[in-house]
């Protein structure tokens, strides 16, 4: 099985530094830099050495791996489960040309994707390796000190990534701390576009993924099966703002079905802690972002500007 590369020349050079030149298969593809170029190489997945499992979910597993002395992340999608169709939809979303075109310092880059249609091939993608830690790991680590400045830094970098995603007519639709990787120097990178959708200009476009993602972060309109908009990501970020503050799991130990019903019918939200240990503007941004009415939520650009104004980020 081979993987079609979408990376820029520098990454390609690193990936192929020690391998012999193989037969080149040419095809027009859109690069991550948003410039159309030729598909210049294919990588045999057998040449990718798996080092260890990093994490596993309903649709796939992610591994730390090596390819020609270059550390990468390998994501394999499950095709032998009852969720095969959903897993394939997730794979197709992640390798959509609009998603592959994303290039931002706070977004994990896809380097290669298996485009083969053979049934025996296991769909997989190769991504840049960021680290084995995500924001959920950081929040759960009692030894990690998270002051107000660091909390806002998390939110600001994630919001910057989402603003860029929205500018490219994509809604992520599965934002949560576990889907934000943390670099060794503490920077955030948005990952896992398996639930994303291209936002159409036409109203009432059917939702492909309203039942996927993690329920605690899903906007009420998505829980009702309505058409996704960019404001669904704003809602999810509002829940994340609460989690960055409390370091707790939203609706922990509560029955999922009851929570979903109350979020939709009674505007249930995570309990806001008492006290004045957080800036009022942060609190107001959090509550406005998780408003039950999408029209009352700020745009992601407005979120970015407010977070930028909260504290000096340099």
UniProtKB/TrEMBL annotation:
Reaction catalysed? L-threonyl-[protein] + ATP = O-phospho-L-threonyl-[protein] + ADP + H(+); L-seryl-[protein] + ATP = O-phospho-L-seryl-[protein] + ADP + H(+)
The entry's ATP-binding residues are: 75
Asked whether the keyword Iron-sulfur is assigned, the reply is no
Alphabetized, the UniProt keywords read: ATP-binding, Kinase, Nucleotide-binding, Serine/threonine-protein kinase, Transferase
What InterPro entries would the database entry show?
Kinase-like_dom_sf, Prot_kinase_dom, Protein_kinase_ATP_BS, Ser/Thr_kinase_AS, Ser/Thr_Kinases-Pseudokinases
Which Enzyme Commission number(s) are listed? Answer: 2.7.11.1
Q: Which protein family is it in?
A: Belongs to the protein kinase superfamily.
Protein name as catalogued: non-specific serine/threonine protein kinase
Against SMART domains, the record matches this protein to: S_TKc
Q: Which SUPFAM superfamilies match?
A: Protein kinase-like (PK-like)
Q: Where is the Protein kinase domain?
A: 48-311
Please give the organism. Answer: Desmophyllum pertusum
Write one Gene Ontology MF term. ATP binding
